[in-house]
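QA checklist item 7 of 12: single-chain prediction sanity check.
[x] sequence parsed
[x] length recorded as 199
[x] structure emitted
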Amino acid sequence: MVSRLPAAFAAFLIAGAGATVLEPSGAHAAPKRIDICHGFGCYYRSALILDARDEKRFGAMLAGGKASPAAERAAISDAVRYYEGRIQQVTGVRDEARGQFGGGRVRGQMDCIDESTNTRALLLYLQERRMLRHHTVRSNISRGFLLDGRYPHFTAVIRDPGGTDWVVDSWYEPMGGPPDIMTVKDWKRRGVMGNRLPS
């Protein structure tokens, strides 16, 4: 996943800490700047401005998730796909599926630290604007420690009203593809020898 884990991990911690600042919410709040991570381990950052048009688009998507937590997770999937399209407009590059070892310091290419940091920033944006009715944003988590046959891999997390944590993991798809949204318990069993599904 990443070739320089210590530096990437430090960048992940810094990015995660910086993404927790809340802003006043309300109809058409001020545009939001999100520093998009790319190049592996947040080596590069590019400014994405989410404006009133983006807010309206996200609001329409998340309105479809009012009915239930499951419906909201489906709406979050749509929001991530739209958001990644906006990211591509900023970086000028369509990120490929999964971070490849040769993608380090390549503009627009993202490892799981970039992906999870960017996804969490979106989820916080939706939460700040009170578009999430059934979930709260949690800290990013990881799985894998090499000796278990898995590279360390990070993901964003949301929690439903019953206390179940769900991952929102967009790393396995090319930019704009549907993220994996599943329980943390199921996600933790995956990724052996780089496989998406349990072995």
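[x] summary fact logged: Residues 5-194 form one domain.
[ ] second reviewer sign-off
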